[in-house]
Amino acid sequence: MNDATYLLDEALGKLAEIKHLQAEMSNRAEWEARDETERSEREQLFRQLEGQATSYITLGKSTVELLKLFTAETKDPWMVPEIVERLAAMLDFNLSLLTGPRRAELNVDDHDKYRFNPKQLLSDILSVFLNLSGESAFIRAVAVDERSYSLSLFQRAAGIARKRSLKTEDEIEKLRVFVVQVEETKATMEVEEELGEVPDEFIGNVHQRFLRDSASDDYKCVLDPISAVIMRDPVILPSSGAVVDRKTIKQQLLSVPQDPFNRSQLAIEDVTPGVSFRAHRMRPRTDGGFPASRCRIESQNRCFPRRAERFKNNGT
């Protein structure tokens, strides 16, 4: 996962720099007017970028191809909480680079020289989305990606896939259904968020509150100090004594095997399980609003058919 993110980010970044240098050198009058030393330095940088881009693109392409094959064969390993959100964010981000406003930056002269095939890369990324489109955890992970995901992003991708014959009509329809499910999930989450924020009495010193409440059967809700979301499976880090959600620390350890609070070495096997928090029972609403379940149903009935139709009409 980290390799795919790093390689694609570096490859596409180097292509953007190459595109900029190609534009500089294409203006012969301005280029010749520059100091010879400056031209030499820019040409040396250009050759360096070409070598790096070719290497990163080759490795990144192979990584995405493997990701496409693996997700076609098995789904469960990709759905664990510490993996699925990172996978969704990586796919969304690269989809936005290939189909969004920044795609012009990748339009370098002579794609073949750098072994860059944007149509194939786009097709492979869409294949990963399609492979995992039936997984509820993946749908939710895409829905929570506020950095890159948007309905218009997938509309553009579907339009390009159809225009360039990258996917069949059945596959594009499957992609449309997937996006409708993502939009449904987003709407449901928005409704739940509107029902209220975490009560103030539940927010405080996480470690002290955890230790105080762990001996009691009464439910006490605390926030993860890193992600600032309600902890579902709290654990204690042995060195710092901090209390975090298991999902959060597992995500951290995928990149750096250290306690984020004091940088001591840490493995997931070292953490100590904490108490299991019971679900907070929502207080009855007194403002005349719908209960959560009815609110969710009303929202779905109002929003989702139009969203489905909008995707179908615009994805051309």
In short:
By secondary structure, the protein is mainly alpha-helical.
Number of helices: 11
Number of strands: 3
- Judged by helices, strands and strand pairing, the structural class is mainly alpha
The number of domains: 2
Binned, the helix content reads 55-70%
Descriptive notes:
The chain is mostly helical. The protein has two domains: 2-193 and 307-314, no CATH class; 200-270, Zinc/RING finger domain, C3HC4 (zinc finger) (Herpes Virus-1, 2-Layer Sandwich), CATH 3.30.40. Helices cover 60% and strands 3% of the residues. It has helices at 2-26, 28-33, 36-73, 81-99, 118-131, 136-143, 151-163, 169-194, 206-213, 246-255, 292-314, and strands at residues 234-236, 243-245, 272-273. Strands 2-1-3 form a three-stranded antiparallel sheet. Strand 1 (234-236) and strand 2 form a beta hairpin.
Key words describing this protein structure:
globular; single chain; 3% strand; 3-stranded antiparallel beta sheet; Herpes Virus-1; 60% helix; 316 residues; mainly alpha; 11 helices; 2 domains
Secondary-structure map with pairings?
Blueprint lengths: L1 H25 L1 H6 L2 H38 L7 H19 L18 H14 L4 H8 L7 H13 L5 H26 L11 H8 L20 E3 L6 E3 H10 L16 E2 L18 H23 L2
Antiparallel strand pairs: 1-2, 1-3
